[in-house]
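Internal QA ticket QA-208
Title: Verify multi-chain structure generation after dependency bump
Assignee: T.L.

Test input:
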Amino acid sequence: MSVVINEVRRGLYLDSVALMRMSREIAALPEVEEAGLMMGTPANKEILRNAGVLDATGEAAAAGDLVLALRAATKVIADDALAAAKKLLDQPKQQTESGSSWKPRSLRAAMTLAPDASLALISVPGDFAAAEARKALSLGLHVMMFSDNVSIEDEIELKREARARGLIVMGPDCGTAIINGAPLAFANQIPRGRIGIVGASGTGIQEVSCLIARLGGGVSHAIGVGGRDLKAEVGGISTLQAIDWLDEDPDTDHIVLISKPPAPSVVNAVATRIGESKKSFTVCFIGAAHTSLHGDARLATTLKSAAELAMGKKLHAHTAHVGKGAARGRFVRGLYSGGTLCAEAQVLFRDAGVAVASNAAIPGVRKIASGDHGHLLIDLGDDEFTRGRPHPMIEPSVRDQPLREALADPSVGVILIDLVLGFGGHADPAGHLASMLKGRMGEGPIIIGSVTGVEDDPQPLAAQTRKLEEAGVIVAPSNADAAALALRAISD
Amino acid sequence: MSDIASRIEAANAETLRRILAADPVLVDVIPAHEALPRLREKMILHAGPPIEWARMCGPMRGAITGIAVFEGWASDLRDAEAKAEAGAFQFEPNHHHDCVGPMTGMTTLSQPLLVVENRAFRVRAYCAINEGLGKVMRFGGNDDEVLTRLRWIRDVLGPALGAALRDLGGVPLKPLIARGLSMGDEMHQRNVACSSLLLRTLAPALARKVSDPYALSAVLDFIGRNDQFFLNVAMAMGKSISMPAEGVKDSSIVTVMCRNGTDFGVRVSGLGKEWFTAPVEMPQGLYFPGYTIEDANPDMGDSAIVEVVGLGGFAMGAAPAVVGFIGAGPASRAADFTHAMAEIAIGSNPEWTIPSMDYAGVPTGIDIRRVVDTGVVPMINTGIAHRKPGVGQVGAGTVKAPITCFEKALVAFAREMGVS
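Actual output:
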């Protein structure tokens, strides 16, 4: 037999919404059949009566009284529930953290929160990215498109529209930019300085900007343009715009241009533009055989030399770590998270006359065939490794399986790796790699690597380097130096 | 592309201008047969988009049978049901008659209607008088108690209110709403401030016009006991504000949102009188003791007209006490809901502001393009009716407008604009 229990608080008014919430909480207690906390108006008492929770105590309540009414399986449960209800009534009001939890769902609403914003970073699935970019442009925003899988037709249309509006589209597939000292997407905490960077490659910008920082310099702006900007169809629209701006920028003295080898027609346009500029340039078309430039421009073949030319200084190279021909196995296996770092390593191998193959081969390098057993430099950020998985810069475990295979392969004498630090990257890539290498006591391949990063990054450079060294990795000062060390280790 | 976009922007600016320029005044209460020229014998106006008897939900059927008895078109509820089944009554939406009604929204010849005149545009809109809480016809109630109250509203309350309003020369509603917002009302789920403000304004005129002290007492008591009395005034006002905004060529702004317990219906300014419908959703909310979601009927009523003009869910920031109804989140987050609705509105109302949001105006002018683009749908504060006829209200909560209505409307709009 159920028990009905009522209590009346004379002259206590509470908002009906608050009371309904409490009623629901009490009614949800185990073995409580029904509960109602209501002001004792005739209409409310009727509701309680119909719900079978009103007794004589509650019936006697007046409109200004609060009725606590409940029905439960036993007297004990009813008493406990009543006590719980009274506790709810009497407890001090919960203080929630002040401030709004509201997050804008649209660019337009975001603009109301940040009316002086000038740039939108778009990171939505490729199918929707062009539409969002169009909205951003119409709101007068520059666009950084982190998204990939955007059609080249959309890219061309967006870049033309942006140019007509005096805006720029960085991307699509633009992984890195530093604008006014603000690192965007995958970028490092580079000090501000007088070198501007224009780059079609994310890790290329990261490596060059980090080496500039290590050489004591800084970056005014690093403008990403996306991997297809220097293709003939796009015609370098964003690259040329970026050069225009850096040319006009009073805080920029020197401009570094980084890209894969552009289409010949675009090279001419870019070279002409450089020739017209009042500023000096360093141009690094990674893997390009020969490029003719005009004006005050020097050509760099590697990211490292680009940084050195821009700074007018050499990076310390301490190659004493690896003896000539120290490797036991014959071959080098490069396992890269950064695509341009992989390309830079290929340049060094190719230019040293060492035959090498890659899944992301530069001109003059062989594409990997199945069962290939020579020197292999693998870009783990390539689609075949990242389909349905995060990029290895975010999730370093992408490298685990290829690394195990290389460690177990007696033909492998040197494993080359890169570590890319900075915003957007994994919190502790060196720690992850070290855990993979635990228990190896000087056996198997020599592991040579480099760390792209600076001390002010979320993963400080020195601590990451130390973890690698403690795990037995030989850490070179740059990616190019790492590749050079690998070549030394396998030389006769 | 940009030509079409600029045409739409210009049209929407005009629609918004018309909404904001409105000057709604509660001017009178008159019988429906005087107010609505096309209303006839055995014609029953209902809430929401058009619907036939066969598809009507329980509470709508309950209200239909009740009002048929009330009008003397049937001898009892059973007779009324048989006649409805046999096609004896003609059903039309309130919105086809410049009229609105809460929940089931019954409007028939002899009912007294609140008259709100939008003096800036010389149009009038109508809504029946709020019946109070508990067992009432708008929630599908139809027994003697319900019909007796309706008779009293017809014979005593309606004429008294009409006389008082004529005596006062009308009550301007825009300033009244502005004060209500500053007192915690959002004019849909919470009308306690505006109901009180209105009663305070009406009382002296009622005292002048109602000679029988018992009748006067009953009138004052009836209004004074009903925290939601003002809702129906706000609804007629919402309709009077949105009417001039209808039919602006190239405008993608919503002019009507309503539900009949089966379908949710939307109309868009540039698409005239066309309805875009989708199955209506269940409200999410809190239930009176003894009831659960199992008892609830899908959402009903023309009351979402207040959201169309920036009140209700759009003005949630003004009414923290209402936030608890959605059963999630503390009252301190009230502003979040208004912020969210601002994502789909093209402007805000500088005369209706929310003090705790630094006097931001309520978001106004729902753009179907923004709804579809953001996936943010209008949030409507609502009451919950029992799914069976005759039971009445079982709770209160919020309901989201189904996005399908807006998608259908946008497709039609694109076609209208010549975009394939």
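Spot checks passed. The first helix of chain A runs from residue 16 to 27.
Status: verified.
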